[in-house]
Sequence to fold (502 residues):
Amino acid sequence: MKQFFLVLLIGSLLGLYSFASLSAQGFVTNGSASYLGGECYQLTPDASGQAGTFFSQDPIDLTMPFSEQATFFFGCKDLNGADGIVFILATSNTALGGGGGGLGYLGITPSIAIEYDDYRNSNFGDPVSDHMAVISMGQIDHNMATNLVGPIDIANIEDCEEHCFFVDWNPVTNTLTAVLDDNTISYTGDIINTIFGGNTSVYYGFSSGTGSLSNPHRVCFGPPELEPMPDVSICEGESIILEADPNGIAWEWDPDPTLSQLDISDPEATPDITTTYTTVIEYKCGYFLNDTVVVTVIPYPDAEASNDGPKCIGESIELAADGGTTYQWDGPNGFFSTLQNPILNNIYLDDGGIYTVTVTDAAGCTSTAETLVEIDEGPEITIDPPPDPVCISMDPFLMTADPPGGEWDGDISPGGLFDPAYTGEGIQVVTYIATNSNGCVSTAQIEIEVLPIPEVLIDPPGFLCEGSAPIQMIGSPVGGIWGGIFPLMEYSILQLQGVVLI
Ligand SMILES: [Ca+2]
Ligand SMILES: [Ca+2]
Ligand SMILES: [Ca+2]
Fold:
């Protein structure tokens, strides 16, 4: 979006009249002059021997105030450039004067003109310096009576810069005033009668010429063409450098707390929501343009991450993401994937942990989500110890374990009944298998040593006499416990039973 408004260069002059720009009016081009497009006309190309003019299509009325502004371009060659630009009021809009030192004006009469001359023609009384003058009747010789004001020296105008021109006619004071940059020249006189013989209807226009030396000469109206800011998009949380037309000389942004600075062409904008920023751009010669830019703030993608765990060791687990168009996963053990829903196969405990997915949407905005992958190693098993010792002669006993409800494997019933008589002596290995609520299985083993029934032997003590000293009875295997009944009458029997009598 752009808006155009013109701010006039010379406030003191403008204060006198209401201003009406005639720059929208078409112009008639003559000689080497041509329309460049936009609001620009070329008076001469950068070629020798040129003469060109262009004049308003319709006349202006000298009984009414008139003013116009334009920018002049005199080219870039100073010493080797020529010849300058002339503003003209004339009775014909097809008039074309002589080129070279004639500036395209020589011979156009009746007329009055403001001359900006950048080539010294000593035969015309030109000063050494670039200069301005008010001249008339198609004569460019400063020594003639047709020279009305000047010549006045001005700084070099063939400097590759645009120069700000403003002209104003005041019919009340009969004053014609022209300004080029900081240079003002004016002429007061009865122009209608002394120049135009009472004719109040004249055309205004411009001329230029080149001789053996040349420069391109150009006249433009209105502000330069705006280089508009394209609307942009950013992701939530980002900032962006706005780039208003850099051809301006000053910028003033509408106040906004999300702008880093209000008086530069390229402030940084950090909007939280979609925001329209507006700036007024000032250009050389007092032109202003508005420009706006819409910064669309794209919200973060709504990233989602999940997995189908918990899973048991050795199984596969699937990660799942959503909310974007591309995905990038990172996780334990250097896991990396750009699949939306990657699958981890043959998982082990160290595959567990937090997996992070970076979700990117179609606009390139990203956000992340996490999911915790749990690897279930199965229930922790505690087998209750069996009786100690386990003798082969023992009755079957029930093995128990925590968590209950598992199954036993080995020489044991699935329910855990262990029968020493069935297994026989020796070390028996039995296994307990338990499954948890996730369906993950653990096993544990225990060794049960089944002991044989010992064969008990008593070394015969031999014959003992009454009153003999006590003897030590010896039985095998060692470590047994002695016992018995000691009826006094039954010595022989007791002897056979290995009892020590005292
Ligand atoms: Ca020159
Ligand atoms: Ca000259
Ligand atoms: Ca010059």
Q: What stands out?
A: The helical segments are 11-14, 191-194, 420-423, 491-496. Residues 1-25, 487-496 have pLDDT under 50 and may be disordered.
